[in-house]
Amino acid sequence: MKHYKFILSGGGTGGHIYPAIAIANELKSRFPDAEFLFVGAEDKMEMQKVPQAGYAIKGLWIAGLQRKLTLQNAMFPLKLVSSLWKSRKIIKEFKPDVVIGTGGFASGPLLQMANMLGIPTLIQEQNSFPGITNKLLSKKANAICVAYENLERFFPKGKMILTGNPVRQDLIDIQNKRAEAIAYFKLDANKKILLVLGGSLGARRINQLIEKELENILAQNVQIIWQCGKLYFEEYKKYNSDNVQVVAFIEKMDFVYAAADVIISRAGASSVSELCIVGKPVIFIPSPNVAEDHQTKNAKAIVDKKGAILLKESQLDAEFSLVFEALLKDPEKQKQLSENIKELALPEATKQIVDEIVKLIK
Fold first, then answer.
1. Which residue stretches of the chain are H helix?
2. Is 295 annotated as a binding residue?
3. Which of 43, 50, 258, 362 is 20 to 30 A from 315, comparing alpha carbons?
4. Does the annotation list 127 as a binding residue?
């Protein structure tokens, strides 16, 4: 049996890194003696997260273009040339069978160089509105795995496969973990449990909202697990109490989803895919400061199918308390949202993406 080699690249945020790691893990379970190498951006979080997952990583000197005139933009051409040369060197030395990109700056030069050297490439697009890197790479890519329908205006139709986003496999069956989860977090099973998620780095606006509404939420016999992000933990840890658990980061995501009755979340692509599998009532508060406002588009794809509630940041002061209270008092609405969002889940995504990679090496 041939000894396969895979290079994976994705980073900048957890939304690009975790899918790449999930794909690597599935490839490893099929080809136990395969070799893996990750390529990331030198100063981004993948340089910590990938080694923690047990894989080697090399960094490129690359960053995205800022939307205004900055020194960083002036450096961009230099960084791009440097990253293309380094990518060429990495590919020539490692000799991969396939190169896989899950988005983020570093995947651009790496996959571009793989295409030039005639190595098969696969890109995985998490969002309903693709980023610039993947749009550029799609012309030469062999396969494009997408998580949303109707992306023909961005990508060549014949190369697209609707797979969904890779998610943690331990989320597939959380129904049976509720009692264990409530005990693990020392929660009161007779109170409703609200889970607040701001993404891997936290979300300032969601944190400000919860701080402002805290008394009101607690008055409705609710307990809160509040993931505020490591950037904000020092500021918000003072709210820890019997009914509020403020944490920087959550390790046991399967447990926290199993315990939750209602979830408030950002609408990053990975979060949205996870929440479809989890199947709980969700209020999405998309980040407005992301490229092409793609979080709002991700959330709208769910809301249009009556699977969640969407509140823009600009609506929070006027509408949050009314919307939240109405949802809490309406078990029928909670049930309907849960059923509808679950319909949109694509739990076999990682396996299907790896099936496509296997086709490229055969």
1. 14-30, 46-52, 71-94, 107-116, 132-137, 178-184, 204-218, 233-236, 253-259, 269-278, 294-303, 316-328, 331-343, 349-361
2. yes
3. 258
4. yes
